[in-house]
Amino acid sequence: MDKEINVLALVKGEERFIFLFDDENRDQTLRQLARYAADPELDFTWYDAAMLSRKIRDAVPSDDDMVASEEFDSLSIDDFY
After folding, report:
1. 1-40 tens-digit pLDDT
2. Cβ contact 6:59 at 8 Å
């Protein structure tokens, strides 16, 4: 098997959220995190989605992530006043 599969899991009480993704379906996985966070029947919060999104972006960075990261790194507290 020459395609790498990433595994990301979150355990919250009795619920288990397990995501399998590769480089090609990274963005679909990020969208799925948002769908889960918006579902009131799941114990999956926007905080959970944000934390898992960060892990996905770290595991499979895109060019857009790198540009955004460089822009955020150059910000200072004065930029927010």
Report:
1. 567 899 999 999 889 999 999 888 999 999 999 999 999 9
2. yes
